[in-house]
Amino acid sequence: MKLNRDIQYPSSTHQDQWDKLKQFTDARIALGRAGCSIPTRALLEFQLSHAQAKDAVYQEMDVSYLSEQLAQRQLQSLHVQSNAPNKEIYLKHPDLGRQLSNSSKEALIKKYAENTQEYDVCIVVGDGLSARAIEANAISFITMLNEQIQQENWTLAPIALATGSWVALGDEVAEIFKAPMLVMLIGERPGLSSPDSMGIYYTLNAYSGCLDAKRNCISNIRSAGLSIPVAVQRLIALMKKSKQLGFSGVNLKDEHQLSNKDFEETQKLLF
Questions:
Q1: Phi/psi zone of residue 77: left (φ > 0), alpha (ψ -120 to 50 degrees), beta?
Q2: Burial level of 265, CB count in 10 A (0-12/13-18/19+)?
Q3: How far is CA 198 from CA 62, 207, 223, in A?
Q4: Mapping DSSP to helix (H, G, I), strand (E, B) and coil, where does residue 154 land?
Q5: Angstrom distance (rounded) from CA 244 to CA 113
Q6: 32: part of which helix (H) or strand (E)?
């Protein structure tokens, strides 16, 4: 019997020639190789990122923590729930996550009846596909946004903390509060390098059954993405312009430009 020569792969890790490009992206490029496989470190980092993304989807939003933090900032809040009673149903039946439960709807109507003042802005905080993103970013964002809202002399409705929610759930909340400007904060679908990414959906004159074309989106708000100060600036610019023009969505263009100082601060965060 003829024996084939055993192939011996080098024990050292082969560096990829594109390695220097890794400083510009979180994407998994230039991993190198160890023999005929990817390096052990790169494999373990991938498995960790996958686990973090999965945990972000199934993590329950800590409503008590959020409501306490908002109360410390003299901001009213209340907990609402969609028609999806748990994560499994939420993921399998997206339509249920777009509708308020009957009990939550009644609670909102009662809350509005207690104080029938006119509201300009309605903020809804939804867990979406990453409660981790909300817990990491929402309080700081709302604090900064509220300062701008006060400067504009806009009135803010009680903040709704929504569990089991998709974006469209906010439409019903804004409709009940009769608030023309809806700001929906929601945990975005986690990528393999961004389990803590929060998105904002802004809609003028939202209503139940509102089309997605009527929304403006600002995404990737996180420590390694779009900074909270810049996101607040962009949102306020959209709100002002939509109020002036009378519409939001695909016809409302985001023309906000960063100042040199803001641009430099963003570059420091990214690189």
A1: beta
A2: middle
A3: 15, 23, 10
A4: coil
A5: 29
A6: none
Judged against a pLDDT cut of 60, whether residue 271 lies above it is answered with: no
The runs of H, that is alpha helices, within the chain are: 40-58, 63-72, 87-92, 102-114, 131-151, 169-177, 228-245, 260-270
What tokens appear for 240 in the block? 């002002």
Distances (CA, A) of 207 to 169, 177, 179: 10, 11, 10
Specify the DSSP class assigned to residue 208. T
What type of residue sits at position 33? R
Cα gap 78→162, rounded to integer Å: 9
pLDDT single digits (tens) 25-46: 777 888 877 777 888 888 898 8
Strand 215-221 relative to strand 121-126, pairing: unpaired
Rg of the Cα atoms in the chain: 23
Q: What is the pLDDT of residues 224-238, one digit of tens each?
A: 899 999 999 999 999
Structural contact between residues 182 and 206, judged by C-beta atoms closer than 8 angstroms: yes
Please provide the distance, in angstroms rounded to a whole number, between the alpha carbons at the two ends of the chain.
59
- Strands in 181-187's sheet, in edge-to-edge order, are 77-81, 159-163, 121-126, 181-187, 198-204, 215-221
Q: Are 123 and 130 in contact (CB under 8 A)?
A: no
Residues 15/29, Cβ–Cβ less than 8 Å: no
Q: Tokens 């400083």 — which residue?
A: 23
